[in-house]
Amino acid sequence: MSVLDNFQDWKNFLSERVQQAQKMGMNQDTISEVAYQIGDYLAQDVEPKNEQERVLKELWNAADEQEQKTMANLMVKLVSENKQ
Q1: Please, are residues 46 and 4 in contact by the beta-carbon 8 Å criterion?
Q2: What local confidence, expressed as pLDDT, does residue 6 receive?
Q3: Global pTM?
Q4: Average pLDDT of span 56-72
Q5: What is the enclosing helix (H) or strand (E) of 13?
Q6: Using CA atoms, how far apart are residues 21 and 69, in angstroms rounded to an integer?
Q7: Residue 2 lies in a domain
Q8: Domain containing 54: what range?
Q9: Are the beta carbons of 42 and 32 closer than 8 angstroms?
Q10: DSSP annotation of 5
Q11: Which of 3, 19, 67, 83 could pair with 63 in a Cys bridge, judged by C-beta atoms 3.0 to 4.6 Å apart?
């Protein structure tokens, strides 16, 4: 089963990757840039597996680059706050 099959699994996976990046010393700007690149890849090349991912893809595609970066930052913030 893929982490993309279930939105909660995806959030947990992303949270673990953010924690790993922080432990490795990555700063928040770098983490946000990586999240933006992942978001762009997912929106362009991966078919959504659930309704939450479909909504995110549609929002991503409607957004300009700055808005997409904001969305990526919000996803990082969402999964970071879930672990606090």
Answers
A1: yes
A2: 76
A3: 0.81
A4: 95
A5: helix 7-23
A6: 18
A7: no
A8: 7-82
A9: no
A10: S
A11: 67
In angstroms, rounded to a whole number, what is the distance separating the alpha carbons of residues 60 and 12?
Answer: 21
2, 49 Cβ separation under 8 angstroms: yes
CATH code of the domain containing 24? 1.10.760.20
CA–CA gap between residue 26 and residue 18 (Å, rounded): 9
**What are 3-46's pLDDT values in tens digits?**
666 778 878 888 888 899 999 999 989 999 998 998 898 899 98
Closest among 82, 70, 71 to 12, alpha carbons compared: 82
Q: pLDDT band for 53, please (50, 70, 90 cuts).
A: confident
Q: pLDDT confidence of 83, banded at 50, 70, 90? A: low
What pLDDT score does 36 carry?
Answer: 92
**Residue indicated by tokens 């990046």:** 21
Quickly count: other Cβ atoms within 10 Å of residue 35's Cβ.
23
Q: How many domains does the chain have?
A: 1
